[in-house]
Every structure is written in structure tokens, then in C-alpha cells.
Write a structure and sequence with these properties.
Layout (H helix, E strand, L loop, with lengths): L1 H5 L3 H8 L9 H13 L5 E6 L3 E2 L2 E2 L3 E11 L4 E4 L14 E6 H5 L2 E2 L21 E2 L2 H5 L6 E11 L2 E9 L6 E7 L6 H17 L6 E7 L3 H9 L1 H7 E7 L9 E3 L7 H10 L6 E3 L8 H4 L8 E5 L21 H19 L4 E3 L22 H12 L6 H8 L3 H13 L3 E3 L2
Parallel strand pairs: 7-8, 11-12, 11-13, 13-16, 14-15
Antiparallel strand pairs: 1-10, 2-3, 4-5, 4-9, 6-9, 10-12, 14-16, 17-18
Length: about 425
């Protein structure tokens, strides 16, 4: 598998697209998608959701475009400029141009006292306001007795939220979904690491039994809009879904379970990742990314999130310290390997579902003795398999459950399939 990955240079892609000013919408996202199409895989399709449109309980915010944003002292000395770091501007800031006092400026400045050299990342998608983010050390040096020129040349308008999709058609319409997000500016682990893995997967995955869909969407509202548009398809065809977030650092592999913690995605991710060193699992109570939507309370899709160090658990999170030095090619390729192993594990296993309700009348199928005191081992295993087959158990999981060899379980599943009691989820 390492040979397959050898020619992939994810850090090269990261260095190229790190400076793009991505947000929920706008030119930075479109520029990122165009880069992927040109430099990674031309088969990625550019798609979009309408802004100012309702998706379930949410309204997608207007498209946002910013061309200039800075703070200068009245003598012209620069304090901060979006051209120096995208994080300096509060995301979705409204247009503003005025010379103001220190005290007026202070009300619109954001900093972190506990991380004095870092620029924080903050947004205001759903409330009109303006603001700038600076390091606390820089804030302390501001002169309280002078005025400051503040300029933000931005606009909000009815447009689109763009996203990218790559589809590998399999023999089956049932599919595996791999998701990450492109809506954060200039953060390497929290923003770019997931998309980098998806970009690499587009180059190494081949058509197999199940179809595979890779999507790069705006976080939260993008996931909600995607589910709204593809609701019936997801409910009918999703085998397992995986959100990739914060997967470029050197931390141990981490799984954020679905709400039920018992879906097929939970099981297959666990059995692959538990073989890695110091694997860690969190419940849905520790959710924070797109598993909140795909695995939400009344949708209950088989969907989990895979991280290295979980978002919020590393000190560089949502700051300028989450830079390209915080991730590495080695760590990214370890994540790529494990993600590929999960996909391959799904592809090589069969999943069955029952074709009838309640317990089958086994005597009718001549699968059990008509006169018996208790079920023998063969009969008991048939009873158990018929009871447990569903979309959350593949052959491997059933063999673990029954504590029988996979070969033994497969033979009995074939018997049930031949009798038309179960069928492959295919």
C-alpha cells in the first residue's frame, strides 16, 4: 500500500491552497475547487447550493466577498491586514470604512490572552457585524491615545455555496460516503487535512463492489443542504459514512461515534482503527463536526467522524498556530492508509438484510428438525443469524457476535440466502 502512496505529495497541495481565503462561500472556495480539478483530479465536479435558501431549519447565508481589510494607525502604520493573514478578518464581516478611537476599535477586536502570539479564528455568519482578530501581544502595544483607520471592503449578496464531489461508480448502487469541509481559511489541521485525504483517495481508489462518493462541502450548513437535497438517496443507499477532520497531526487515531454507537460505520471503523497504537473513541456527546448532521437524532445514518487529535483538543485549534508546520506528509499518509483500509474492509465483506418480518418459519424451509427438545448448534446459529442480519452487521461482525469462524458464518448465510429468507444489501 505504501508504494501506491509514494507518488502522492499532499504537502505540496497544502502549500499551494493554504493561502486561499476560504469561507462558507465565495471565491476562495471556488479557487480551491478549481485547483483540485486542475492539479489533483479533473473528475471532481463543482456543484452548489443557493444562498438565502431554506434547508430544513436553516437558511444558507448570503455569499460573501471581501477584497480589502486592514487597520492602520492615523499616521499610516499598519496594525493588521487580511493580505498578511486571512484570519485577521472576522469571517463574514460587514463593510466598514471609518477612522475611530482606540475604545471604539477595541470593541471589535478579538484576541486570546492564553495564546498571546496566536491570531484566533472567529466568524459571524448569521449576525451582521465587523471585526478583526489579532494576537494579544499586538493588542497590548496599541496606542490608546490615537485614532485608527479601519477599512473593510466586503459585500453580501444572493449567490451560492459551492462544493466538490467525486463519484466512483461500483457494481452496486449502495455507497460509501467520505466527507470533509472546505470553509476555513488558513488552518492546516482543522481545515486542510481532511480535504487532502479526500484528494489523495480520488487518485488511488478504483471501482469495486460498492460505489464511493467523496464530497468537500461547507461545514454544518453544507452538510444540512446536502442531506436535504439527497435525503431519500442517503436513507436508501448509504452503507457507511465517514467525516474526516483534524487528521494531519501526529496524535493517535480517534473515532467520534454515531449517536447509537452501534451503526455499521462505528463497527467497521473501530475494528480497523483499534489495531493502531492507542486508538481512542468518543461518544456522540463529544461531537463537533459534520457527524452532527449526518448522524443527527432523527436521521440516524451510519456515520462517524475520524480524527487524529480531536478538534478542540490541541492547543493550536482555531488559531494561526494551526499552520503548515503542524501537519506532515508522514501523518497524512498514515491517515490515508487507515481510511483506505476501512474502505477496503467494507468492500470485501457482504451485508445481508432480512426479507420478512418476525422470525422465519424454519420448518417450512426444512432447515430444522420437526421434533426436537432444544435447538442443536446448527439450528441455533441459523436462528441467531436470521435475527441479527441487518445493515449494521456484515459477515465479519456476525462472526464476532456468534464467536464462530467467518467461513462457518458465510456458509450459513448462503443457506438463508438460498431459501430467500435474507438477501444481500446490494
Amino acid at each position: 500500500m505504501r508504494k501506491k502512496f509514494k507518488y502522492i505529495n499532499m504537502m505540496k497541495w497544502a502549500k499551494d491552497i493554504f493561502p486561499y481565503n476560504r469561507s462558507l462561500s465565495g471565491d476562495g472556495v471556488r479557487k480551491t475547487i478549481k485547483y483540485i480539478q486542475k492539479n489533483v483530479n479533473k473528475k471532481f465536479k463543482s456543484k452548489k447550493f443557493k444562498s438565502n435558501s431554506k434547508y430544513f431549519d436553516w437558511i444558507a447565508p448570503s455569499e460573501w466577498k471581501v477584497t480589502e481589510a486592514f487597520i492602520r494607525e492615523e499616521n499610516g502604520k499598519k496594525i493588521c491586514d487580511i493580505n498578511d493573514n486571512n484570519l485577521h478578518l472576522l469571517g463574514y464581516s460587514s463593510k466598514f470604512s471609518k477612522t475611530i478611537s482606540y475604545h471604539q476599535l477595541k470593541r471589535n477586536l478579538y484576541f486570546l490572552k492564553n495564546k498571546p502570539n496566536a491570531i484566533p479564528y472567529l466568524t459571524s455568519y448569521y449576525k451582521k457585524k465587523w471585526g478583526f482578530c489579532i494576537s494579544y501581544n499586538k493588542f497590548k502595544k496599541l496606542n490608546k491615545n490615537i485614532k485608527y483607520k479601519v477599512k473593510i471592503n466586503s459585500k453580501h449578496f444572493k449567490g451560492f455555496l459551492d462544493y466538490a464531489e467525486f463519484f466512483i461508480k461500483g457494481k452496486s448502487k449502495k455507497e460509501i460516503l467520505i466527507v470533509s469541509y472546505i470553509c476555513h481559511p488558513s488552518m492546516a489541521n482543522n481545515e486542510l487535512s481532511g480535504p487532502l485525504i479526500i484528494m489523495a483517495l480520488s487518485k488511488i481508489l478504483k471501482s469495486q463492489k460498492y460505489s464511493v462518493r467523496l464530497i468537500l462541502i461547507p461545514e454544518t450548513i453544507g452538510a444540512i443542504a446536502y442531506i436535504k437535497q439527497n435525503f431519500n438517496h442517503l436513507k436508501k443507499n448509504l452503507i457507511a459514512g465517514f467525516n474526516l477532520s483534524c487528521v494531519g497531526d501526529k496524535g493517535k487515531f480517534t473515532l467520534i461515534n454515531s449517536k447509537e454507537s452501534n451503526t455499521y460505520a462505528d463497527k467497521v471503523a473501530t475494528r480497523v482503527l483499534e489495531k493502531t497504537k492507542k486508538f481512542k473513541k468518543y461518544s456522540f456527546l463529544k461531537r463537533g463536526s459534520n457527524e452532527r448532521q449526518f448522524g443527527c437524532q432523527n436521521l440516524s445514518l451510519p456515520f462517524v467522524t475520524i480524527c487524529r487529535t480531536r478538534f478542540g483538543d490541541f492547543k493550536e485549534y482555531h488559531t494561526s498556530n494551526d499552520n503548515l508546520d503542524f501537519i506532515s506528509e508522514k501523518n497524512l499518509k498514515e491517515t490515508l492508509k487507515q481510511t483506505k483500509l476501512i474502505i477496503d474492509d467494507i468492500q470485501k465483506n457482504k451485508i445481508y438484510v432480512k426479507k420478512l418480518y418476525c422470525e422465519p418459519f424454519f420448518s417450512k424451509y426444512k432447515l430444522i428438525r420437526s421434533t426436537r427438545i432444544r435447538a442443536n448448534n446448527f439450528e441455533k446459529e441459523l436462528f441467531d443469524l436470521a435475527a441479527y442480519v441487518d445493515k449494521n452487521y456484515d459477515e465479519t461482525e456476525l462472526s464476532k457476535l456468534l464467536r464462530k469462524s467467518k467461513e462457518n458464518v458465510v456458509k450459513k448465510l448462503q443457506i438463508l440466502d438460498k431459501k430467500n429468507i435474507i438477501e444481500e444489501f446490494y
